[in-house]
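This is your field. Pick holes in the following sequence-structure pair:
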Amino acid sequence: MSAAGTVAWGALAVLVYAYFGYPLLLWALTRLRRSAGPAVSEEQPHVTVVVAAWNEEGVIGEKVENTLGLNYPAELLDLIVVSDESTDRTDEIVSEYQERTGRVRLLRLANRQGKSAALNVGVPAARGEVVVLTDANAMFEAEAIGRLVRWFADPRVGAVSGELRYRTSGGVGEGESVYWRYEQGVKKAESAHHSLLGANGSIYAIRRDLYRAVHPRDVNDFRIPYEILLQGYWVVLDPEAVSFENPAPSMWAEYRRKVRIMARAIPMMISLLGPTLVRGRVFALWQLISHKLLREVQGVFFLAAAGGAAWGAAQGEALSAAFLAAQVGLYVCGAVGWAAPAARRWRPLRLAAHFDMIVLASTAALALWLTGQIKPTWQPARRAG
């Protein structure tokens, strides 16, 4: 095999491993090593829900009503909203609930610092022994809190992730739903080993005393559970604890959201490689590289696959030319599906557009990281674009 072929097919092999090989190996290990799951009970600890909010006047009232109306004892459930220097009516709306209910507290950051910094203020202020972290636009199913906290009857469990479901289908929502269904399958296999990597930022619960402050640039719904995993606790998934959100309103809005998250995730995950190895968590290290890091930097491998194939095609290699044509065809289909809303009526083009978006977002995120343009603050994707 020529050098060009080695580059192209080697990059493809890495991508196939990341998306298919790792899940298959994880599934095989699950079949070979069956272990008893955590003990669950109907005990009801005091729970504090913490929401980091920036200019959420359009949804924060609904979020408060949804939280206070959940099927969980009112005396054991309260809500903290940390306003990241909101400039709209977010603070006013939350203050009204604070005065009227006595179960809602508003905390405000003096300077806009980002979601992770807001959680560093909100979680230590929580009264509950269990803290549920969520987003302002995430609405819980009525039994969600009870389903999350039942796992904490087992002292080995340190964090529990729920499941996000999108309210609408088609367009951006369908592409994200397909991706999320795939991700949920991988997470279920990881959870079977009590080692879920990260959590769903829309809905997850932790033991308050296991919380460690995170860097403002960290992706909190990965870093917080991962730190709990490194402390020796189990991190598990409960797919019956459901949160609902609307998908991003456009492909560009979702693209910008993914770029922001990936750009912050790449340096964070690289920084975790050493501590994970030092603590002897070899299984977690394998997961971190295979499931997370390779996905975040996948843009490099897609570029290598295309570049190697083009190099080989220029040298007259038929196999490289065919590989390059297949890649170009996929990218063109995605571009058509992305640029032409009418074309997205055809499902394959919608999915190809979502694939293109992920590849492009990974590449852009790498560029942002390498040029030092990562910011800790955020803009809700439903309003972007």
Notes: The radius of gyration is 22 Å. The chain has twelve helices and eight strands. The chain has a mean pLDDT of 88. The chain has two domains: 1-33+251-385, 47-247.
